[in-house]
Amino acid sequence: QVQLTESGGGLVHPGGSLRLSCVASGFTFSNYAMRWFRQAPGKERELVASISRTGLGTNYADSVNGRFTISRDNGKNTVYLQMNNLKPEDTAVYYCRDDEGNWGQGTQVTVSS
Predict the structure, then answer these.
(1) Which of 10-14, 32-36, 96-100 is predicted least confidently?
(2) pLDDT grade, residue 42 (50/70/90)?
(3) Which of 93, 90, 70, 67 is nearest to 80 (CA)?
(4) What is the pLDDT of residue 61?
(5) Could you give the CA distance from residue 41 to residue 28 in angstroms, rounded to a whole number?
(6) Which is nearest to 49 in space by CA: 87, 91, 27, 20?
(7) pLDDT score recorded for residue 10
(8) In whole angstroms, what separates CA 109 from the centre of its chain?
(9) Beta strands in 2-113 (DSSP E)
(10) Is residue 59 within 8 Å of 52, Cβ to Cβ?
């Protein structure tokens, strides 16, 4: 069965960095585009970044463009989200999702001084 497992979240000061990982299993990872979403308390889940099957195509929300980088390693069935210059408004639960609509359980990111 399909499984997506996120990790790498935590508490970080403003201006700090985190790298999230999402390990996939149960499907042919390299056949699917992947996406990172986030959901802050009291807000709707929003798309943060997406990456094509090969990794050559990426897209970002305006709010994170220039600060976040999505990448993937098809040999490791893993998609990453490198987050730099984090801001308090980046605080949220971060989820990965595949093209079939399967979600991971999420990882909490808290940006606070």
Answers:
(1) 96-100
(2) very high
(3) 70
(4) 98
(5) 33
(6) 20
(7) 97
(8) 11
(9) 3-7, 10-12, 18-25, 34-39, 46-51, 58-60, 68-73, 78-83, 92-98, 107-111
(10) no
